[in-house]
Amino acid sequence: MVDKRDATPAAEAATPDEGFMRLALDEARAAAAEDEVPIGAVVVCDGRVVARAHNRRELDEDPSAHAEFRAMVDASRALGRWRLTGCTVYVTLEPCLMCAGLMVNARVDRCVYGAPDPKGGALGTLYDVSHDARLNHEFQVTPGVLQGECASVLREFFRAKRAARKAAARRPDAGDAGHDASVGEQ
Ligand SMILES: [Zn+2]
Protein backbone atom coordinates (compact mmCIF):
# COMPACT_ATOMS: atom_id res chain seq x y z
CA MET A 1 0.00 0.00 0.00
CA VAL A 2 1.33 3.38 -0.92
CA ASP A 3 0.86 5.84 1.87
CA LYS A 4 0.53 9.09 0.00
CA ARG A 5 -0.20 11.93 2.36
CA ASP A 6 -0.24 15.55 1.42
CA ALA A 7 1.31 18.25 3.57
CA THR A 8 2.93 15.94 6.10
CA PRO A 9 4.21 18.20 8.88
CA ALA A 10 7.38 16.09 9.11
CA ALA A 11 7.95 17.35 5.57
CA GLU A 12 9.32 16.03 2.33
CA ALA A 13 8.64 12.32 2.66
CA ALA A 14 8.65 12.11 -1.09
CA THR A 15 8.32 8.33 -1.14
CA PRO A 16 7.13 5.72 1.37
CA ASP A 17 10.76 4.62 1.72
CA GLU A 18 11.79 8.13 2.72
CA GLY A 19 8.91 8.34 5.19
CA PHE A 20 10.01 5.17 6.96
CA MET A 21 13.65 6.19 6.81
CA ARG A 22 12.69 9.39 8.63
CA LEU A 23 11.37 7.24 11.47
CA ALA A 24 14.67 5.36 11.49
CA LEU A 25 16.45 8.73 11.63
CA ASP A 26 14.34 9.68 14.66
CA GLU A 27 15.61 6.50 16.30
CA ALA A 28 19.19 7.38 15.37
CA ARG A 29 18.78 10.75 17.06
CA ALA A 30 17.35 9.02 20.13
CA ALA A 31 20.55 6.95 20.24
CA ALA A 32 22.69 10.10 20.09
CA ALA A 33 20.69 11.54 22.99
CA GLU A 34 21.72 8.46 24.98
CA ASP A 35 25.35 8.94 23.95
CA GLU A 36 25.18 5.90 21.69
CA VAL A 37 26.47 5.84 18.10
CA PRO A 38 23.42 7.20 16.24
CA ILE A 39 22.01 4.40 14.13
CA GLY A 40 18.28 3.73 13.97
CA ALA A 41 16.00 1.16 12.38
CA VAL A 42 12.35 0.32 11.83
CA VAL A 43 10.72 -2.87 10.57
CA VAL A 44 7.69 -2.48 8.34
CA CYS A 45 5.27 -5.31 7.59
CA ASP A 46 2.37 -4.82 5.16
CA GLY A 47 2.86 -1.06 5.26
CA ARG A 48 2.76 -0.91 9.06
CA VAL A 49 5.64 -0.21 11.45
CA VAL A 50 5.91 -3.26 13.71
CA ALA A 51 9.15 -2.38 15.50
CA ARG A 52 11.59 0.48 15.91
CA ALA A 53 14.91 0.51 17.71
CA HIS A 54 18.26 2.22 17.98
CA ASN A 55 21.78 1.20 18.78
CA ARG A 56 22.28 0.48 22.50
CA ARG A 57 25.61 -1.31 22.62
CA GLU A 58 27.03 0.77 25.44
CA LEU A 59 23.94 0.94 27.64
CA ASP A 60 23.09 -2.72 27.24
CA GLU A 61 26.74 -3.84 27.25
CA ASP A 62 25.75 -6.04 24.36
CA PRO A 63 27.73 -6.42 21.12
CA SER A 64 24.57 -7.53 19.34
CA ALA A 65 22.55 -4.45 20.32
CA HIS A 66 22.74 -2.91 16.83
CA ALA A 67 19.64 -0.95 15.80
CA GLU A 68 18.39 -3.26 13.06
CA PHE A 69 19.22 -6.41 15.04
CA ARG A 70 17.13 -5.20 17.97
CA ALA A 71 14.35 -4.06 15.63
CA MET A 72 14.18 -7.48 13.96
CA VAL A 73 14.02 -9.32 17.29
CA ASP A 74 11.28 -6.94 18.45
CA ALA A 75 9.41 -7.37 15.15
CA SER A 76 9.43 -11.15 15.56
CA ARG A 77 8.02 -10.82 19.05
CA ALA A 78 5.37 -8.35 17.87
CA LEU A 79 4.33 -10.58 14.98
CA GLY A 80 4.60 -13.82 16.96
CA ARG A 81 6.86 -15.53 14.42
CA TRP A 82 10.57 -15.77 13.80
CA ARG A 83 10.15 -15.51 10.05
CA LEU A 84 10.01 -11.91 8.92
CA THR A 85 8.59 -12.79 5.53
CA GLY A 86 6.75 -9.78 4.15
CA CYS A 87 8.89 -7.36 6.15
CA THR A 88 11.22 -4.57 5.11
CA VAL A 89 13.99 -3.40 7.44
CA TYR A 90 14.87 0.31 7.24
CA VAL A 91 18.19 1.25 8.79
CA THR A 92 20.21 4.44 8.63
CA LEU A 93 23.60 2.73 8.11
CA GLU A 94 24.40 -0.24 5.88
CA PRO A 95 24.12 -3.41 7.98
CA CYS A 96 27.18 -5.30 9.20
CA LEU A 97 27.76 -9.03 8.67
CA MET A 98 25.90 -9.95 11.85
CA CYS A 99 22.80 -7.94 11.00
CA ALA A 100 22.80 -8.90 7.33
CA GLY A 101 23.16 -12.50 8.52
CA LEU A 102 20.11 -12.09 10.71
CA MET A 103 18.23 -10.74 7.70
CA VAL A 104 19.02 -13.99 5.89
CA ASN A 105 18.00 -16.09 8.89
CA ALA A 106 14.81 -14.09 9.43
CA ARG A 107 13.92 -14.37 5.71
CA VAL A 108 13.22 -10.65 5.33
CA ASP A 109 11.86 -9.48 1.98
CA ARG A 110 13.92 -6.34 1.74
CA CYS A 111 16.38 -3.98 3.40
CA VAL A 112 16.50 -0.25 2.77
CA TYR A 113 19.51 1.57 4.13
CA GLY A 114 20.75 5.15 4.20
CA ALA A 115 24.52 5.55 4.30
CA PRO A 116 26.94 2.92 3.01
CA ASP A 117 29.51 1.67 5.53
CA PRO A 118 33.00 1.38 4.04
CA LYS A 119 34.26 -0.19 7.29
CA GLY A 120 31.75 -2.98 7.64
CA GLY A 121 28.93 -2.86 5.11
CA ALA A 122 27.66 -6.32 4.24
CA LEU A 123 24.94 -5.39 1.77
CA GLY A 124 27.08 -4.33 -1.14
CA THR A 125 30.10 -2.45 0.16
CA LEU A 126 32.49 -5.04 1.66
CA TYR A 127 30.25 -8.07 1.14
CA ASP A 128 26.88 -8.75 -0.34
CA VAL A 129 25.07 -11.16 1.89
CA SER A 130 21.73 -10.35 0.23
CA HIS A 131 22.50 -12.15 -3.01
CA ASP A 132 24.74 -15.11 -2.28
CA ALA A 133 23.50 -18.27 -3.94
CA ARG A 134 25.29 -20.39 -1.31
CA LEU A 135 22.90 -19.09 1.36
CA ASN A 136 19.32 -20.30 1.61
CA HIS A 137 17.63 -16.92 1.28
CA GLU A 138 18.06 -13.84 -0.89
CA PHE A 139 16.42 -10.47 -0.40
CA GLN A 140 16.11 -7.10 -2.09
CA VAL A 141 18.28 -4.16 -1.11
CA THR A 142 17.66 -0.46 -1.71
CA PRO A 143 20.71 1.61 -0.74
CA GLY A 144 21.13 5.36 -0.35
CA VAL A 145 17.70 6.47 0.88
CA LEU A 146 18.23 9.82 2.66
CA GLN A 147 21.91 8.95 2.53
CA GLY A 148 23.15 12.49 3.21
CA GLU A 149 21.04 12.94 6.31
CA CYS A 150 21.86 9.49 7.67
CA ALA A 151 25.59 10.09 7.20
CA SER A 152 25.50 13.58 8.68
CA VAL A 153 23.87 12.38 11.92
CA LEU A 154 26.83 10.05 12.38
CA ARG A 155 29.39 12.64 11.32
CA GLU A 156 28.00 15.24 13.75
CA PHE A 157 28.04 12.73 16.59
CA PHE A 158 31.71 11.87 16.10
CA ARG A 159 32.65 15.50 15.56
CA ALA A 160 31.05 16.43 18.89
CA LYS A 161 32.80 13.50 20.58
CA ARG A 162 36.18 14.60 19.28
CA ALA A 163 35.56 18.19 20.38
CA ALA A 164 34.54 17.02 23.85
CA ARG A 165 37.64 14.86 24.12
CA LYS A 166 39.87 17.75 23.11
CA ALA A 167 38.22 20.07 25.60
CA ALA A 168 38.61 17.48 28.35
CA ALA A 169 42.29 16.97 27.52
CA ARG A 170 42.90 20.72 27.77
CA ARG A 171 41.49 20.90 31.29
CA PRO A 172 44.09 20.48 34.06
CA ASP A 173 41.86 18.03 35.93
CA ALA A 174 41.41 15.86 32.86
CA GLY A 175 40.91 12.19 33.41
CA ASP A 176 37.28 11.87 34.36
CA ALA A 177 35.32 13.35 31.52
CA GLY A 178 32.18 11.55 32.56
CA HIS A 179 31.91 9.21 29.65
CA ASP A 180 34.05 6.64 27.99
CA ALA A 181 36.24 8.53 25.57
CA SER A 182 36.87 5.57 23.32
CA VAL A 183 33.71 5.48 21.30
CA GLY A 184 34.29 3.05 18.51
CA GLU A 185 32.56 3.44 15.22
CA GLN A 186 30.08 0.78 14.40
ZN1 LIG B 1 24.98 -4.74 12.71
Short précis:
The chain is α/β, with parallel strands linked by helices and 186 residues long. It has helices at residues 16-33, 57-60, 67-79, 97-106, 147-170; strands at 40-45, 48-54, 87-93, 110-115, 140-142.
Task: Explain how this protein is built.
The protein contains five helices and five strands; from the N terminus they run αββααβαββα. The protein is α/β, with parallel strands linked by helices and 186 residues long. The chain has a five-stranded mixed β-sheet with strand order 2-1-3-4-5. Strand 1 (40-45) and strand 2 (48-54) form a beta hairpin. Residues 1-10 and 177-186 have low confidence and may be disordered. Residues 66, 69, 95-96, 98-99 line the site of zinc ion.
Key attributes of the depicted protein:
alpha/beta; five-stranded mixed beta sheet; 5 helices; disordered N terminus; disordered C terminus
Structural class: alpha/beta
The main β sheet shows up as:
5 strands, mixed
Number of H- or I-type helical stretches: 5
How many angstroms separate the termini?
33 Å
Low-confidence segments, given as residue ranges, are 1-10, 177-186
Helical proportion, percent range: 25-40%
Strand order of the largest sheet: 2-1-3-4-5
Q: Which kinds of small molecule does this entry bind, naming each only once?
A: zinc ion
